[in-house]
From TrEMBL:
PANTHER family: LIPOCALIN-1 INTERACTING MEMBRANE RECEPTOR LIMR, PROTEIN LILIPOD. Residues 1-15 form the signal peptide. The lineage of its organism: Eukaryota, Metazoa, Ecdysozoa, Arthropoda, Hexapoda. Keywords: Membrane, Signal, Transmembrane, Transmembrane helix. This is Protein LMBR1L. One of its GO terms (molecular function) is transmembrane signaling receptor activity.
Amino acid sequence: IFLLLLLLLYMSSYAIIRRFRRQDREDYFSTDEDEITVYRISLWLCTFSLAVSVGAALLLPISILSNEILLYYPDSYYVKWLNSSLIQGLWNHVFLFSNLSLFILLPFAYLFTESEGFTGYRKGLMARVYETFIVLCLLAVVMLGMTYVMSALIDKEQSNIHTLLNLWTYYLPFLYSCISFLGVLMLLLCTPLGFVRLFGVVGQFLVKPQFLRDVDEEFFVAQLEEDCLSRRLNLATATGKSYVSPAPMCLVPVSPGCEDDIMENNPDILMTLQNGALQSGLGERLNKVQFRRKVLDKQRHTSSLQRNLMYPVAMLLLCALTAVTVLMVLQNTLELLIGIKALPLSTRQFSLGISSLSKLGPIGAALEILLIFYLIATSSVGLYTLPFLSQMRPRTKMTSLTHIIANCGLALILSSALPLLSRILGITNFDLLGDFGRIEWLGNFKIVLLYNLVFAATATLCLVNKFTATVRRELYAR
């Protein structure tokens, strides 16, 4: 079962990476067989790491669903394979492979692509392997030294020669707990932003009702812009002029939900281009406008039922999920303050099929699974909304291998912290199994309480700002 799940996740992850990776290094420019081999090996390591991160993100919903299935079909012959031993083994394997991918495979993939072999030795694939291995060992020594210093500062009683040699049972779980804490802090930043950003993302794929958006008008504007850009590109190609003629009279309007791409839609940037860069810039902009015109043409022909029903239902569903999430966080905060609910630090073994994880039974379990998937979507969308990570957003057929490695590392960190986020916020009462439960900072009352308060406050403020920003700007202007 473990092997089948891993193969399924690996194939899915390979399809995702193949969609985003840039193929010029392997297929077009590189003629060195060693370079191609290095590229492929690094790509395989990234695919495995992404498969592990997807498995870590899906682990909590699968565990909740398995418990409800065993609760309703305790004596069924067809679900005998679904037991506590299987789920416990999944958590332990995910913890092991997460450590392996985060601390060994991804650093090896990056160093392997940057290696050239030691000076004075024969160049080749093995020379690059030796250099990567030695640099990785030196990096591991530095990381373990920093981890020992951090553990000595945090817990002075554990800083002795015995714990220094106790690598597998003390330092790796401690280092992983630090990474998980960093992931939880990142989720605290990107999840509230994802609540807001997801409204714009859904609005791009669904057609707004006629009273909110005039698709016909946007289509004719895009068509006129396409004709104008075609004439300018033909003129620049035929005459060799290094300036835009005629000059734009006004800025091109940005379509709703595309505020992040305003710099790409600004024609003033085209005014500064010269020679071949001007023709290239006009060609890229023409391709974007043509794609937007085709999308608007498809949206024009959508049925009125789909246009007037799907968009309001989707917006109401997003509002309801966000409101339920904030209310559950507030309830968890009050229960922590009163003392009804214990801290999420728990290492006891949980037996599946004994009792439901939710007070509402299967309906509550289904709601927990839905909220967990909603948190996955919002954190993924909000991650690339952050200013220092927006440039790393993967783009179709335009993502370099270095950015693929960085994105796989981010996915590993966030997916490993997702079970902790659900447990801290009180989304689910499912106890963390395996070595995930050996995270001591979950027993700190101040950290857990402060996290709940900050999450509820930031999520509320982001939503209020989203729905009142336009009104406030108009009031201030008047």
